[in-house]
Every structure is written in structure tokens, then in C-alpha cells.
Write a structure and sequence with these properties.
GO terms for molecular function: G protein-coupled receptor activity; olfactory receptor activity. The protein is mainly α. It is built from twelve helices and five strands. It starts with 6 loop residues before the first strand and ends with a helix. The mean pLDDT is 86.
């Protein structure tokens, strides 16, 4: 970190960080990351297009899946540009306003994804607990209100962050820990008192990721209680099987974040390259894996894709 003797407010420059010790090989190291980003964008784009154009997929579970795909695309669009800027062009400098904007969108799309995962958990609970009332509870208007509430919450929880950061003093040049801007990283670089910023960040996380993860666990506890009340073992297995895809993407979303948190507190300075790799992957893996999981586990998604490919074949013929 540079000296605070020449600190400024809102006019600082931040330096992106790649993989420490591997600067000469950034082009090669970034190839897998590029591939993950491209596959993520294509996969989620195909899922969105498929759900939009196939009437048989206009069901609550798939509409929530389209919301998840949209948030994944937003997360890729928020992180991908600066990472490519760093790895391929070697450009490290990022002005304060651009850094604050990227921070806002990264956290906002993360909170949107967390909220959609909670909505999908509720969808599975209603489908198993109240199968006869499923269509009347989760109507299109109800899902639109849920989606709007998720988006508004993400914006409101993240809006104070960039505003409060403008009142902090930073060195004229600060070195970030990653190839993108995060709230905790920026607050840690400030030269002035950051108690309010830290408190706002903590409250924001507790009211989003913390609350969502608790309610998802509660939803699955209620689902498990409902399933155990079903007399037929075959019906129990069938009910649980409808939750497998969602449970997989919940684990894919939360486990890398948990691993990164542990790594930052235990061995971040011993293995800086590993910490940076985990930091990159914990944003890139969920958008990459979510379409794959649903394509493997969802028969309707596979059938929809097959139908589209067959139509293309006929059109070409």
C-alpha cells in the first residue's frame, strides 16, 4: 500500500492485482479463466433464450432459473472486463469512479443471485408441500413481484457503499487484492476512519447472503420434514430428486465464498496466488456451473435444447 501522506477523496487510482509471482505468464494463466467466462456467457445466454422461446418452460421453476441466468450474465459482465484488461493488456490502473461502479454491480448481482436461490428454495418447498395449490400460489404476477423485490433489495443494500466511499481518503495510488473492486478491499485501503463503512458492509451482507442462507436451510428443513411424512419410499425419492439441481447450485454458490473467507483468515499471505485464484473462481464458477447442472439434471431443458437443434437442422436442410 502507498503512503497516506498524499491522500485524496474520490480522485484516487487503484491498481488491479493478477497472480503474484506469475506476472510474466498472465497470458497463459488467463486462458482457462477466459474459457470459463465465454462458456458462462454462452451457457446462460442459451438458457435465457430457451426459456423465453419455449412455452413449455414458462413454469415457476424455469422462470426463476431465467432470473438466475440473467444475474449470472450480469456478474460476468461486471468482473470480466477488468480481468481481461489486466491479463491481456497488462493495464492495472482503474480510476475511483470506475472502481466504485464495478464494486456496486458485482455486489448487487451477487445479492440478486442469492435472492433468486432463496426464491427457488421456496418454489421447491411449495411444489412439495402444496402441489395442488402450486400454480395458484406461484402465479406470474407473484413471481414478477418477487423478482422486483430481489432487485430493489440488491440496489438499496449496495447504494450506500459507493456513496460512503466518496467521503473516505485514499492514497493517490492504492493496490487492490484482486483483478476487480470489492467493498471490503476498498475499505481496507482507506486512510481515514472506516467504522461506518465497515458497519454498513456487515449489515448489507447479513441482510442478504446471511439472511438468504439461513432461510434456504430453513426451507430445506421444512422440505425434509414434509418428505419424511410421505408414506411411499418411491414418492419420497421422487420429491427429493426435484431438489437436487437447486441444492447443487446452492452449494456451488456458497461453498467457494466460505472457502475464500477461510483462506483469507488463515493462509492468505502464505499462498497469495492461491488466494487470488480462489477470489477469481468464486465469482466465475457459479455462472459456469449453473447451466451445466440444469442441462444435466433437467429433462425439460435437455428436451428443449434438442428441439432447438433439430429445428436448426431442418432449417439448414
Amino acid at each position: 500500500m502507498f503512503s497516506c501522506n498524499t491522500s485524496t477523496s474520490g480522485h484516487s487510482t487503484f491498481l488491479l492485482t493478477g497472480f503474484p509471482g506469475l506476472e510474466a505468464s498472465h497470458h497463459w494463466v488467463s486462458i482457462p479463466i477466459n474459457l470459463i467466462c465465454v462458456v458462462s456467457i454462452l451457457g446462460n445466454g442459451v438458457i435465457l433464450l430457451l426459456i423465453r422461446t419455449d412455452p413449455s418452460l414458462h413454469e415457476p421453476m424455469y422462470i426463476f432459473l431465467s432470473m438466475l441466468a440473467a444475474s449470472d450474465l450480469g456478474l460476468c459482465a461486471s468482473t470480466f472486463p477488468t480481468m481481461m484488461w489486466l491479463f491481456w493488456l497488462g493495464a492495472r490502473e482503474l480510476p475511483f469512479d470506475l472502481c466504485a461502479a464495478q464494486m456496486f454491480f458485482i455486489h448487487a448481482f451477487t445479492y440478486v443471485e442469492s435472492g433468486v436461490l432463496l426464491a427457488m428454495a421456496f418454489d421447491r418447498f411449495v411444489a412439495i408441500r402444496e402441489p395442488l395449490r402450486y400454480a395458484t400460489i406461484l402465479t406470474h404476477s407473484a413471481m414478477a413481484r418477487v423478482g422486483a423485490a430481489i432487485l430493489v433489495r440488491a440496489v438499496l443494500l449496495n447504494l450506500p457503499g459507493p456513496i460512503l466511499l466518496r467521503h473516505l481518503l485514499f492514497p493517490q495510488i492504492s493496490v487492490l487484492s484482486h483483478g476487480y473492486c470489492l467493498h471490503c478491499d476498498l475499505v481496507g485501503l482507506a486512510c481515514s476512519d472506516t467504522q461506518i463503512n465497515s458497519l454498513v458492509g456487515l449489515v448489507s451482507i447479513l441482510l442478504s447472503l446471511g439472511l438468504d442462507s439461513f432461510l434456504i436451510v430453513l426451507s430445506y428443513a421444512l422440505i425434509l420434514r414434509t418428505v419424511l411424512g410421505i408414506a411411499s419410499p418411491g414418492e419420497r425419492l421422487k420429491a427429493l430428486n426435484t431438489c437436487v439441481s437447486h441444492l447443487c447450485i446452492v452449494l456451488i454458490f456458497y461453498l467457494p465464498k466460505l472457502g475464500l473467507s477461510v483462506l483469507h483468515r488463515v493462509e492468505k499471505h502464505s499462498y497469495p496466488a492461491l488466494a487470488v485464484l480462489m477470489a477469481n473462481l468464486h465469482f466465475l464458477v457459479p455462472p459456469f456451473m449453473n447451466p451445466i447442472v440444469y442441462c444435466i439434471k433437467s429433462k425439460q431443458i435437455r428436451q428443449g435444447l434438442l428441439k432447438r437443434f433439430q429445428q436448426k437442422r431442418v432449417d439448414i436442410s
